[in-house]
Design a protein that fits this description.
Radius of gyration: 13 Å
Largest sheet: 7 strands, mixed
Number of helices: 0
Order of helices and strands: EEEEEEEEEEE
Mean pLDDT: 96
Number of strands: 11
Helix content: under 10%
Low-confidence stretches: none
Structural class: mainly beta
Strand content: over 45%
Shape: globular
Length: 126
């Protein structure tokens, strides 16, 4: 059974930092793009960041560019999201996603990824 399990969420003060991790099991995603999305209450799930299979290519939503960093460790089958300079508007459930269909990144839309984690809550207070 393929699973993506997020961890590292929690409470943070505005201006603070959190580091999310997403560990994959059941298959390797070392040859596949992976990403982070988030969903705030009453809002659609939105793209946050993505990384190519090699880790050399990264993509970010404008709202997090310069504050968040996505990275991966293929030996550990894990992707990370370092979140700095957090803002209250970053409050959301953060989801890890993976594309099992090949090495070419298909984009930043939700339909570009076919495996999803259960999500981890991030709450930023001012």
């Amino acid at each position: 059974q393929v699973r993506l399990v997020e961890s590292g969420g929690g409470l943070a003060q505005a201006g603070g930092s959190l580091r999310l991790s997403c560990a994959a099991s059941g298959r390797t995603f070392s040859a596949n793009a992976m990403a982070w999305f988030r969903q705030a209450p009453g809002k659609e799930r939105e793209f946050v960041a993505a990384v190519t299979w090699s880790g050399l290519g990264t993509f970010y939503a404008d709202s997090v560019k310069g504050r968040f960093t996505i990275s991966r460790d293929n030996a550990k089958n894990t992707v990370y999201l370092q979140m700095n300079s957090l803002k209250p508007e970053d409050t959301a459930v953060y989801y890890c996603a993976a594309d099992s269909r090949g090495p070419v990144m298909r984009g930043t839309g939700r339909d570009a990824y076919d495996y999803w984690g259960q999500g981890t809550q991030v709450t930023v207070y001012s």
